[in-house]
Specification:
The complex is a heterodimer. By secondary structure, chain A is mainly α. Chain A has helices spanning 8-15, 20-32, 36-43, 63-70, 76-90, 94-114, 123-145, 153-170, 176-193, 197-212, 222-238, 242-255, 261-277, 284-289, 293-304, 307-324, 327-331, 334-353, 364-374, 378-391, and strands spanning 360-362, 396-399, 404-407. In chain A, helix 9 (176-193) runs parallel beside helix 11 (222-238) and helix 15 runs antiparallel to helix 16 (307-324). The longest helix of chain A is centred in the first third of the chain and has 23 residues, at 123-145. Chain B is 53% helix and 3% strand. In chain B, helix 3 packs antiparallel against helix 4 (107-127) and helix 12 packs across helix 14. The chains are: A mainly alpha, B mainly alpha. Chain A: One of its GO terms (biological process) is transcription elongation by RNA polymerase II. Chain A: One of its GO terms (molecular function) is RNA binding.
């Protein structure tokens, strides 16, 4: 609620392309009235009617100084740095733009730390600055990549800055929203850099500080808490901690606004594999609603015990799952499919035997079906069934001498 | 021949031979010649160099070192050196040549020489980057080095050598990683260059200059190399494998040769040891070498699963031939040794396949108590303690 837009006059101001002086004055007013969302609308070039720097008519002025003077004593310095960053962007100076964004972010965070109370109104612009810095770093890294030199150098520098901010915010008991958001930025970066092992210490630090203060992350603004639970859940997926992953991702999905279909889909890309591993199959309607065709045939294969279909679809989508990091989790579902197949063979053999059906079955039908479905030879079939018994998916034992599988009566 | 240390221009090698005369003479004087470079009949206390057989020795490269073009081999000369090393030296332990001073040389010494000299070739190529990166010789040399190191991993692992030199698996793997990184980078650069050329061609309406129109070399072995890399990572450094896979393009990941490797990795990681061992049994030699790092672990885990799921109150048995095939052993001796090590008794019976039964003991019996897979932890083993030696399956494939 603290982040909802309020003043219609301010909204109108945000929509009209302002002069530089008017922009600074609007910034000062919005900051003094603590209207964080309107602040972002004012300063985001994409939202404020595509305001470009040239519309601000710098007229040869030093934007950083002008912004600092006109933006108010409390927050003008941050405005000045941001305007200088826009200038650098307009001049095509990518490195300088990133440097100024980082300085602006550090300055704004320091102001956030020093603000009274929770400073919640300052978090929308904090989020905006983090996004802008990340995009600037990504663009610079992409340009470097095309020169066949090492990539992600700028993202790594940004990580260092976020780590500093994280350490500072970790000490502030009232500034949990900003602390958790910076944590989200670091988690996002670590996933991109493939440094998953770095996420553990971060999540432990956040959990400890939250527990220490008796603070519930679900009480944070939704934009922050949903993002946090998404990355936390994603990390649990990568560490094969499925129950925790299910809990975190389900919370994120249930609390992500329904209009944010793209974000909900991102959550489902990790939640669906977890649910599948926990034995919960998503409905076809859900998969179609979120454009998750990648799972449709795999779910069908699990339901039917169709190993061939499973293998075919996993091969078709292997690259996608590998890029997402869920390849092994999905491949582990093969034994779920095999279990269904085993059950189907068991049922069919007993049905054919009718009243003479016993629980001791010849292994040969299983060998035939497994060979047909997955190209398994007799030894592989025996190994698969042994594995299913060992996992507890099938109750019974396997007699190699007599070539029989003895199933438990239940 | 001014080095890049002085004028900033890329280095272009000028040495056409395998080794400069200057270096050969210097090493003769300082007694740093290798036995493969000696003149026939030379006094081994003061060996003389056979200039035709000398190959440039490895020297550590560094950014501030001054290199002379005259000391650096041309790109073509690097490949000629590689060809010489692989055709004349690689099989010297089993096929000595009369042109050399020494005739009896164990493979560990052949390996030691080749490791040094192939590394030297790679350094000469790296010094001439980026010009050399997309040259065919760069790719051929690195692919050859990777195959050589993999072959040596097989030939020298678990071997007892009377030589004072010993093979260190870690050093071998380090050489492999030092070869893989520039090789994968070269493939990537070649792709980017080809893409840039196609964009340029489109802009020019399909008309390119003579030099630009020349097609870039595409290695026919690239996908096979990717397969080896994935399987080597699976075997020896699995923590980075998922990240490595995520960086590969979709084209590479979906190629059958590469998709095979990801499926093998998935089989091992998801406890599908039956499939893993079947593939190990059927794979070509080098693919099996790349998988060999985890073969024994797959075997002990597959055996563990068999041992935990038979009817223990009455015991069970299966033929040695079956176990030998199932666990992908290339010989009955290897199978017997492995089973005995893990506490399983083998009872000879000429009437059965493989000439023996493998006995799965009755619960409560002395044999059951003596079988660690049965009596020990209920958790799947996380390592295999069976002493490392030449894997019989690899030996069978090699022979």
């Amino acid at each position: 609620a603290a982040l909802e837009p309020a003043c219609s006059a301010a909204a109108a101001m945000a929509r009209a392309p302002p002069s530089l002086g008017a922009l600074c004055a609007a910034f000062r007013r919005l900051a003094e009235s603590e209207e964080g969302v309107q602040l972002v609308h004012l300063l985001d070039p994409l939202r404020s009617g595509k305001v470009l720097l040239r519309d601000l008519h710098p007229g040869g002025r030093n934007l950083e100084e002008f912004g600092a003077q006109q933006g108010g004593e409390a927050y003008g310095q941050a405005l000045g740095l941001y305007l200088a960053c826009l200038q650098a962007k307009a001049d095509g100076e990518g490195v300088r733009e990133l440097e100024l964004l980082c300085t602006c972010l550090k300055t704004w965070v320091q102001m956030y730390i020093e603000a009274e109370g929770t400073g919640l109104w300052m978090t929308p612009w904090l989020i905006f600055l983090c996004n802008a810095a990340r995009m600037a770093a990504t663009q610079l890294d992409q340009a470097k990549r095309s020169e066949a030199t090492s990539s992600d150098a700028y993202l790594k520098k940004l990580v260092e800055i976020h780590r500093e901010l994280f350490q500072k915010l970790n000490k502030e008991r009232t500034k949990r929203a900003g602390h958790v958001w910076v944590c989200c930025e670091l988690l996002r970066a670590y996933f991109k850099l493939g440094q998953i092992s770095q996420c553990s210490f971060l999540l432990t630090a956040v959990s400890q500080s939250l527990n220490r203060d008796g603070f519930n992350p679900t009480e944070l603004p939704k934009a922050i808490s949903v993002t946090f639970f998404y990355y936390w859940g994603k990390h649990c997926v990568f560490t094969h901690n499925l129950r925790d992953a299910d809990e975190k991702l389900t919370w994120a999905f249930n609390n992500c606004p329904s209009k944010c279909k793209g974000n909900r889909r991102k959550i489902l890309l990790y939640l669906v594999p977890c649910k599948l591993r926990l034995g919960v199959l998503p409905t076809p309607d859900l998969l179609h609603a979120y454009d998750l065709a990648i799972f449709v045939d795999i779910v069908r294969a699990i339901r039917e015990g169709n190993v061939r279909l499973f293998a075919e679809k996993m091969e078709e989508h292997a690259a996608d799952f590998i890029k997402m990091g869920t390849y092994l989790i999905m491949m582990k579902l093969k034994f779920t499919v095999l279990r269904s197949l085993t059950r189907n063979v068991h049922r069919e053999v007993r049905r054919q035997k009718g009243d003479n059906a016993a629980h001791k079955l010849d292994i040969q039908p299983f060998e035939s079906v497994f060979s047909w479905q997955d190209g398994c030879d007799a030894d592989e079939t025996a190994c698969i069934i042994s594995n299913l018994i060992y996992q507890g998916a099938v109750k019974g034992y396997l007699s190699h001498e007599h070539r029989k599988i003895v199933f438990a009566k239940d | 021949g001014v080095s890049p240390a002085f004028d900033g221009a890329p280095l272009v090698g000028e040495l056409e031979g395998m080794c400069s005369l200057e270096e050969a003479k210097e090493r003769q004087m300082t007694r740093q010649l290798d036995k493969f470079e000696w003149k026939v009949g030379t006094d081994i206390r003061h060996p003389e160099v056979n200039a035709a057989l000398a190959t440039k020795k490895y020297q550590r490269s560094s950014a501030d070192k001054a290199y002379r073009s005259s000391d650096v081999r041309t790109v073509d000369s690097c490949w000629r050196t590689m060809e010489y090393l692989m055709t004349e030296i690689l099989d010297f332990d089993v096929n000595p040549k009369p042109a050399y001073a020494m005739q009896k040389v164990p493979y560990i010494e052949v390996y030691s020489y080749l490791r040094d000299r192939t590394r030297s070739c790679r350094v000469d190529l790296h010094l001439q980057q980026p010009r050399s990166t997309t040259h065919r010789c760069f790719l051929d040399t690195h692919e050859c080095c990777l195959r050589f190191e993999m072959l040596s991993l097989f030939l020298l692992t678990g071997g007892s050598s009377s030589s004072t030199e010993k093979y260190d698996v870690k050093l071998g793997l380090k050489a492999i990683s030092q070869t893989i990184e520039p090789l994968l980078n070269a493939y990537q650069v070649a792709k980017e260059k080809a893409l840039a050329k196609s964009i340029l061609a489109e802009c020019m309406g399909g008309l390119l200059g003579e030099e630009d129109a020349e097609e870039e070399y595409v290695s026919p072995f690239e996908m096979a190399m990717h397969r080896y890399v994935i399987l080597l990572l699976m075997s020896f450094s699995s923590e980075g494998l998922l990240q490595h896979l995520a960086k590969l393009s979709r084209d590479i990941l979906s190629h059958p040769l590469v998709s095979f490797a990801t499926q093998v990795f998935a089989a091992f990681s998801t406890d599908d040891y039956g499939m893993f061992l079947r593939v190990y049994r059927q794979a070509d030699f080098l693919t099996a070498v790349a998988m060999s790092g985890v073969a024994d672990l797959a075997r002990v885990r597959a055996l563990f699963l068999l041992v935990r799921t038979y009817p223990q109150p009455v015991g069970d048995k299966l033929s040695l031939a079956r176990i030998q095939t199932f666990l992908a052993f290339g010989s009955a001796e290897h199978a017997r040794g492995f089973l005995a090590f893990h506490g399983l008794r083998v009872q000879d019976d000429p009437a059965v396949g493989g000439g023996a039964w493998v006995l799965l003991p009755k619960k409560g019996s002395a044999d059951a108590a003596a079988c660690p897979l049965l009596a020990g932890s209920a958790k799947m083993p996380d390592k295999c303690e069976y002493p490392q030696s030449a894997d019989s399956m690899l030996v069978a494939k090699f022979e």
